[in-house]
Every structure is written in C-alpha cells, then in structure tokens.
C-alpha cells in the first residue's frame, strides 16, 4: 500500500476506538481490563503498520501451484500470543478440523473470495490472486479483528462484551474489503474519506453475508457484526445500515452514535475524525439504493459501488459528495437512464448528500 499527500497508512479494526475507550473506563475490571489491553495492542499494531509502510513489506505472491481464479487460503493459530502469523493449522483444500474458529476463518476467507470473483470477476482482493492469510486466537481476551495490510487477524473476544470475532462472516468480509480498497482507491483514513473507506467495507461485508445466505436486499438484516455482541449486551450488532444509530443501546457501551443523514453528521477529532461513526450516512445511502432496486444487492447497487471503487476516478481524499457524484455517473454509464440511476440519485438525496 502506498500513501500520498501525507496521509497516514491504514490499520483497520472492526471495533471502533470509541467503543473500546468507553469500555476502558468501566468500573468492572472484567470489562475494562481487556478493553485497555486491546487498545494497547491496537496502538502497537498501528505503529507496526506505519513502519512497514515506511520500510516496505515483502511482496506476497501466490505459490506456483495456485490456480488462477481459485482461492489460496492459509489459517494460522497465534495460540493467544501476538507474534504473526503463528503456527499454520489449515491450508487450501484441507479438511475441517476440530477448531470451529479455524473453520469459520477458512470459510469466511473463501466466501469473500467467491463474492468478488463471481460477482465482480476480481481474482482475490488485489485482483491478481493474492493469497488470503488469517491468524486466529490472537492474544488473550483480544476484543478486535483487523486487517494489517497483509493479513487478517482475529481475537477470541472477552466473552463479556464480545464473542469470537470469526462468528459474523461480514466481519471477515469487512476487514478483507479494506484490502480491496488498499489495492484500488486507497482512501485516506480520516474524515469523510475515512468514513467512505469504512462504509465500503461495511457494504461489501454485508454483500458477502447476503451472497453466502442467498438473500435478497429485502430479506437481509443489514446488520454488521450480528452475533458478535455477548449475551449481557443490549444490542444486536456493531452497526446497522438499515437504521444507523440503532445497533445497540447498552448501559456499558452507551448508544450507537451513527447518524443516518447529514443533518446529524458528527464533528469529532476522535476515531480519525469519526470514520466509524459518519460511515452510517453512506451506509444508509447504499441500503436505500439496494432496497429500492430489490433483488440481490450485489447485482446492481453493489456493481455500481464496485465500479466507483475500482474505476480510477475516486481520489484518496474523496468526500461524500465526490463519491455520490461518481455513483450517479457509474449508474448512468452502466444502466443509462434506468431504475438504477433513479434509485442511486434518490438514495443520496434522502441522506442529504448532494449529487449533480
């Protein structure tokens, strides 16, 4: 991944820092302890990502025996340590073992590969057969999952607030989709461009779940991370694309802060300018466009969003209006003056983002 214009290299986690900050202040040490350790580990990994970008990372290529258009997955076990990648426990084509976490990670990598290959003719996340590596059982009570620019990493959760991070397939897809953005538009991870970066991962993460379940846009729940929150938490998921701001309302976590429209846009210096918060606005626009069109969301709305992400016109510092304008142009280019153009234009209007 390259960085231009002075932007920070991207280290992407599924749980927003503001959620962990809240947990770190909890009076119960069973909640505060894992959150604080997770924040410390995330800070270390973020620094490592920055150093890797500065000094360069080794090129990753598929092995000679890998078939074009087929996934090449490897799952490693960190055994509750932090050295990456850990011990190899499952390679491409090997049968499932007894570790459900390993099996879910392997399946999620495959589902992500399949969605991009079948729906968009993309060979892995870089478009050139990049091997998909994942490490599970990372650290002790680690409350996150992340893409570090080279591989996926999953914590087991603390069992109090978060369950195993391989449970929701859209979490796996979300993080790998950051890799797609890394290899295409490379959106700067701050402010509105960062919120677009997060939103695109939510969009494709949700599409991967819908594709795996064979769901239409109407049948989908449009939740990101359903099944991730532990039983004691009052909430359904980390985020809702259908109704941003409604995913959780909990005594410990607080209330989901995501806005659905520009009227409630959050101006903050936290979370890289609110990248996990204001992503609710473009998330909701995609939901509105996809449900207006009906059918399978990856076929038309998803195709338009993919065209923008990979089309070469989306700049690193793109704002919401820039992205919206490109989706309108992409809808017109691919579908002319059809329902797709109307649905996309109206969706952005409904969330208060201007289009040409």
What does this structure look like?
With 356 residues, the chain is an alpha+beta fold. The chain has helices at residues 17-24, 29-55, 100-120, 169-183, 191-213, 271-274, 280-293, 301-310, 320-335, 339-350; strands at residues 12-13, 73-77, 87-91, 132-136, 145-147, 152-154, 223-224, 239-240, 249-250, 254-255. The chain has a six-stranded mixed beta sheet with strand order 1-5-6-4-2-3, with helices on one face. Helix 4 (169-183) crosses helix 5 (191-213) and helix 8 (301-310) crosses helix 9. Residues 1-8 and 53-57 have low confidence and may be disordered.
Topology:
Layout: E1 12-13, H1 17-24, H2 29-55, E2 73-77, E3 87-91, H3 100-120, E4 132-136, E5 145-147, E6 152-154, H4 169-183, H5 191-213, E7 223-224, E8 239-240, E9 249-250, E10 254-255, H6 271-274, H7 280-293, H8 301-310, H9 320-335, H10 339-350
Parallel strand pairs: 2-4, 4-6
Antiparallel strand pairs: 1-5, 2-3, 5-6, 7-8, 9-10
Helix pairs in contact: 1-2, 3-4, 4-5, 5-7, 7-10, 8-9, 9-10
Gist of the model:
Helices cover 42% and strands 9% of the residues.
């Amino acid at each position: 991944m390259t960085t231009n214009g002075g932007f920070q290299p991207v280290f992407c986690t599924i749980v927003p820092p503001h959620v962990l900050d809240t947990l770190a202040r909890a009076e119960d040490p069973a909640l505060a302890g894992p959150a604080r350790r997770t924040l410390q580990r995330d800070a270390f990994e973020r620094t490592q990502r920055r150093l890797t970008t500065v000094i360069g990372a080794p090129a990753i290529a598929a092995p000679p025996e890998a078939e074009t258009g087929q996934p090449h997955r490897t799952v490693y076990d960190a055994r509750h340590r932090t050295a990456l990648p850990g011990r190899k426990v499952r390679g491409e084509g090997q049968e499932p073992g007894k570790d459900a976490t390993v099996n879910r990670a392997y399946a999620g990598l495959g589902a992500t590969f399949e969605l991009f290959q079948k729906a968009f003719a993309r060979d892995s996340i870089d478009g050139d057969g990049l091997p998909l590596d994942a490490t599970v059982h990372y650290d002790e009570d680690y409350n996150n999952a992340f893409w570090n620019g080279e591989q996926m990493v999953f914590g087991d959760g603390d069992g109090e607030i978060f369950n195993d991070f391989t449970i929701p397939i859209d979490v796996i897809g979300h993080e790998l989709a950051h890799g797609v953005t890394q290899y295409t538009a490379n959106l700067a991870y701050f402010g509105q461009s960062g919120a677009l970066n997060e939103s695109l991962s939510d969009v494709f993460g949700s599409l991967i779940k819908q594709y795996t379940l064979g769901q239409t846009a109407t049948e989908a729940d449009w939740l990101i991370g359903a099944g991730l929150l532990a039983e004691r938490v009052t909430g359904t998921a980390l985020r809702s694309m259908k109704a941003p701001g409604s995913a959780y309302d909990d005594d410990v976590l607080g209330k989901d802060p995501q806005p659905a429209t520009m009227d409630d846009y959050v101006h903050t210096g936290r979370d890289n300018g609110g990248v996990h918060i204001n992503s609710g606005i473009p998330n909701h626009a995609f939901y509105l466009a996809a449900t207006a069109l009906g059918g399978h969301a990856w076929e038309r709305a998803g195709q338009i969003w993919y065209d923008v992400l990979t089309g070469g016109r989306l700049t690193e510092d793109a704002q919401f209006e820039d992205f919206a304008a490109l989706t309108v142009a992409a809808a017109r280019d691919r579908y002319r003056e059809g329902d797709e153009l109307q649905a996309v234009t109206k969706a952005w209007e409904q969330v208060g983002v201007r289009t040409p």
